[in-house]
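Dissemination and training. As part of the outreach component of the grant, students in the summer workshop were shown how a complex can be specified as a set of sequence lines and then modelled as a single object. The example used during the hands-on session is reproduced here so that future cohorts can follow it. Participants entered these lines:
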Amino acid sequence: MKHASRLEGTHLLTGTARPSAARSRRRAARWTVIALLVLFVAVVVGLFAGAIRIPPLGILGWMVGDGSLTEQQRAIVSQLRLPRVVLAGLVGAALSVSGCAYQAAFRNPLADPYLLGSAAGAGLGATAVIVLGVADAPLALPAAAFAGALGGVGLAYLMASTRAAGRTSTSLLLAGVAVASFLTALQTYVQQRDTNDLRAVYSFILGRLGTGGWHEVLLALPWVGLACAVLLASRRMLEVLALGDLEAASLGAHVARDRAIVVIAASLATAAAVAVAGLIGFVGLIVPHAVRMATGASNRLVVGLSILFGAAFLILCDVLARTVVAPGELPIGVITALIGAPFFAVVLRRSGAAR
Amino acid sequence: MIEVRGLRVSRGRREVVHGVELQVDRGSWVSIVGPNGAGKSSMLLAIAALLPASGEVAVDGRRVRDLPVRERARLLALVPQQPVIPDSLTVAEYVLLGRTPHLSLFGSEAGRDHELAAAILTKVDLAWAADRLVVTLSGGEFHRAVVGRALAQEARILLLDEPTSGLDLGHQLQVLELVDELRRTDGITVVSAMHDLTLAARFADRVALMVDGELVAEGTPTEVFRPELLERHYGIPVHVLRGPGGELIVVPADREAVRP
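and obtained this result:
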């Protein structure tokens, strides 16, 4: 009897479900195309911009395999500009998608990828190698920052899980705050003992893409790729987690395990980003929100769009960072905040008016 | 059939449900009633193993707590007291979240899930709102969407935690009548925690009066809703009246009028 009544309802209603599903698929397709176009434009602009003038048409030709550039011009594009653009894209994608994941997993719109102590941990790791004087060894700094970031998140998890109520998102959040303060204090202490290295330490903390090359890209790529794949696959899970622990559990979710999957994936991406680019604020916070407000879509769409728009956003910010005061360079974190905050204000106002 | 034996629930250090026994027959509607803070919600959530508890809850002889989480959610669906209202989900997407226990970890909905969700939207009278955002629904519409999400779990048992709180009279009836109709057509078993005694009497086959974490009376509404019993446990004089259709109406009595 139960089944019969369902079939009857199904029969009546197949008509209304389809348009709904089809419409959301169309919207997803439209926005994905827009995001890919924006990303493409950002990459092209990123390759064009720089202190040395290289004919744009020559670069476009190079992109499709044509050889009108000189040897030196090719080297600048392929060994300096391209890795930097790719690295900016990877870092932007990593921070945005992690921010999106954290915001859903902790049900906190203010959550950013550095929330659980990854920034403080990375800062401590980087400061330690700089102070120890081994920062010039290949990949020593990124490796230490990566380890520090994961260590920070791991410590927060450990601290939260020792409490009986440690499986809730609030206790993890609080543990993250405690770990972050502790590690930041430790980092400041290490740094103050040897003030000669202040400049190097601050350059890391303010974020930089200038030192990036193909080595850094190769270091970050597997982690960022893995995290993006896991988080894309977890889009639906994020919606369930966003309902809160009780409702998610009542829907059959393994809340603690699912949140751990999301947090670990996001933390790996963040650690990789911090390792190769230092701390770049604001990206993980604003990109997912801007995407959410612009599209009005749920995480099913926002996760993927955050990856694409996050990459484009940071590539463009980096273009500004290296052109505004050329031949000098501004810290990328300054640009993300200077551009990001007003842009965010506009999106906020517009979405407020739309409601 | 649901069998609850010696159920004890603690919240923090305080025990709020002290060894409760209850039986719910298949296809029936049992409402747990009682004053605020009596432990109604705790008991309901413990039945679904959503709160740590001792004692035993079994459905058709299978211990609920021993079932895997997903299987549990295919057996018991909860309509929470104050459901979270997601900002950016459409009503159709929201109802589809009820398919979670039927999907794998990284899985997503297939054609059958969409068809089921569409059928449910008609049942809860929200087909017209399928593409609207959940945040734009009125209170009564949102409650129906939550019931829809629970139905999408295809569970045989529906647990309603104060299903009418925050709703006006018309919407209260709308939600409860919807559940009652589903119970009759789909054979769903319903356990609800409610504070409105008149509504409990109207919809439940049996009511269980819970006071300070214990069930003090259990039976049909007529058996349990006796003025002297209610007065003792609610601490106020009450009238139990009969409406024009013979339905029970429980109202607080005027203290002045009680005086001789």
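Residues 169-186 of chain B form the longest helix (18 residues). Students were then asked to discuss how this feature might be tested experimentally.
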